[in-house]
Structures are given as structure tokens and as C-alpha cells.
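Hello,

Our lab assistant flagged a job as stuck in the queue for most of the afternoon. It eventually completed. Since we weren't sure the result was trustworthy after the delay, we are filing this so someone can double-check. Below is the sequence as submitted and the structure that was eventually returned. Let us know if re-running is recommended.
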Amino acid sequence: MPGYDQNKGTNRFRNMVVGVNAAVPLDNGTYTTGINFDNAATTPAFVSVEKEIHDFLPWYSSIHRGKGYKSVVSTDAYEAGREVIRNYVRADRDAAVIYTKNTTEAINLLACAMNQQKDDRDTVISTWMEHAANDLPWRDKFRVEYVEVDRYGRLDLNDYEAKLKKYRGKIRLVTVTGAANVTGYLNDIYLLASMAHKYDAPIHVDGAQLVPHVPADMRPAGSPEHIDYLSFSAHKLYAPFGSGVLIGPKATFEEGVPYCMGGSAIKLVTHDRIWWEEPPAKCEAGTPNLMGIVAMAAALKTMNKIGMQNAFEHERSLLDYAYGQMCNIPDIQLYSHPDKQESIGVIPFTVEGVHHSLISAILSYEAGIAVRNGFFCAHPYCERLLGYTAKQIEDIAEKNALFPGLVRVSFGLYNTYGEIDKFINFMHTIVDNKKFFINKYGNSRGLYNIKNEV
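-- returned structure --
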């Protein structure tokens, strides 16, 4: 298993990550080494990123407009980051690499640009499995058609092609997640791209869950498999401080007004006219998050050294191990099927008779294990997986009742089989002692107030 020494029971990637041995408090007053199984939300930082930030901080300064030495150093680092990103995802040399705060801002930026260039193409093809960041920005600008998922939560390719045929000539964009943040399913982005291009539609891939886990390749512009637009975030890639990126043809961003307006985006301004900079500068108004960009570039370099295929294979082995163990725990229902669709290391589940928010709290307070619960910002997808109708969800909202939801375990390249064993053992403890834990955490005098989480 790549990255894992079975004889020593250690993960060689583990010492590359900051904070993996940090002790966290438990309800009984003791401490234990924390286990982070919430990597689909945010990963810890690489040690290499921590060092790069520490080494660069003395040289931190303004970019582009300063003539001082530190400003020149900072500007060079800022621009060099684009090439690190471009090479990492094999983007075309003339593509715009635009810095953003995160994937959410990247997609909002793209939606703003697309809205100004409809050219009688007023339809966006999306899917039922999207994160809100790749759904909501399109709704007030386009007619959005959602590709169906099957009973396992996988994309229905027949429905996808049917929608491409039906709206051919009217499609401004196909926008789809590369990997689902709820189920971990990896979509065949090259097949989806080829099908979109066959029907004269460009494609955007939300790479927030894709790029941190599998080798990324946008393919050349002349290829049917070319990914026209790609977005992703650094905070899921072992780089803190909130940075992200949008990559796509410069022409998309040359016309119209930018999503955010201000300094750095302009060449010259009078009270009567604005001359905008060329992309990507046009799309990067204001003082940028330079430290976030330095962190992202350092993280991508480290990922290259590790080898993304090695990382994926290790995480896949963790997934297979954990999934097999979870199948044997009574009263647990699993909502992903990695045996039926290639997946990243994500497992959504529920425990019969115990609210998802309680499971998350019990794991944290009793065992020091961090997971995520709720709808994971992918509400329609989770509602569909759980079998709720739109009317049922409306009733829940109107009554201000507790939301249904799932618990999600998600792995990073530094996680270990030993951590999974501890999780599995404690899940057995929870299932075997439901009444005790519900009384301790869930009743009116409990230690935890159940609340709605998204």
C-alpha cells in the first residue's frame, strides 16, 4: 500500500503534516491524540508550507506597484505561483490563472462573467450532486437544468446526454463537480467534457474535492477531453489562509465588468471612463492574499513530490478498509458505494435512532475524533440520498424542526489504519450504548444542544 509500512504500522506521509499528534480534551477531563476525519472540509497544513510561510514572511510586501526590493520579491512570488498552478493541472499556456479566496468565489466570478456573455445561450447544465457553491451562483442568472442521479447517487449519463441534446445551442456552460463532497464519487470528467463538446457546450469542473486527491490534467484546448474551466481551493490541499483559483480562457474575462472592482484591476480611470487591466489582473482587485498564494504554491510542490497517484492509492486503501469495517457495524446505514463507483476517501452514514449531530459530538467529546455532520452544503443531493421529497423538506423548514442529515468521514493522505480501528471500535461502543449516550448528550439536561447544521 503506497505510503504505508504494514510491518511498522506507520504512514510515511504523516510526518509531513502539522499537528497530527496534537492532544485534544475529552469529556472525562483527560486528553488524547486527536483524529481528523474531516479532511473533505479542511486539511491541516504541510510542514513544508509552514516552513515556506515562516521563511517568506520577512519579505512580505505589496505587489506590482512597489519598486522596493521586498515588493519586487513579493511580486515575483505572486506571479510565480501562477506557473506552479498552471503546471500542476497542465493548463494551457495562454489560459488565465486567476487567484480567488476559494472555490466558491471562483465559481461566482465565472458566473458573473458568463452572465455578461450569454449570446442567446441562457441554460446551464448542472447536476443533483453539486455543492451549493456550484449551484446557487447560476440560479439567478440562467435557467439551470440538473442532471439526475441514480439510486446509488451516481450521475445518470443517459439523462446528461438527453439534456445536452434538448438544449443544444442554448447551453452556456456545463458545470459539474469532479468528486462529490457527500459520497466521494469521482465523475469521469473527460467523458463529461467530450459529451459536452460534442453538443457545442464548454465545461467547468468544480475541482475542490478532485484536485487534492487525484492527478489533475485539464488536457490541451484542441482535445475533446479538454476541461475549459477549473476551480479549486488551497484549504483542502494542506495550505491554510484561504486561497483558491479559477483557470479558463482569457477571452471569457476580457469583456464586461469584473466580479469585484477596485485597485489593481484598472489601467486608468476618469469620472467618465474605466480602462480595465487584462486578465487575470482585471479579476484580482485589491491587495491580494499573498501569504495564501505562497502557501498554495508550496503545497502543490509538496504534492508533486509525493505523487498524486501515490496519495490517491493510499487514501483509496483507507477507504476500502474503513468501508469494509463499517459494513459490519449494526444499525449503521451507508450512503455511498465505492464498490460501484470509483471514489475518494469519503463515507457518509447514519446511525439508527441517533441524530447525526449527536454522533458527531459523541465522537469528538468521547474519543477525540473529528467528523462532519449535516448536509455538507449539498442539500438537494443529501435530501435525495435520504429519500426526502421537496414537500417534506418544506414542511421541516416551515416547522423549524431539526434537519435530517448524515455523518461524513473523510480521509487525508496522513491518516492511518490505526485511527480507523479506533473509530470503528468506538462506533461499536456508540451503537451498543445508544440510550446512555443519548441521555448524556441529547436530552434537555444533556451536555450538547442539537442544532441544525448545513
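-- support follow-up --
The delay was a queue issue, not a problem with the job. The result is valid. The first strand starts at residue 4 and ends at 5. The chain has a mean pLDDT of 95.
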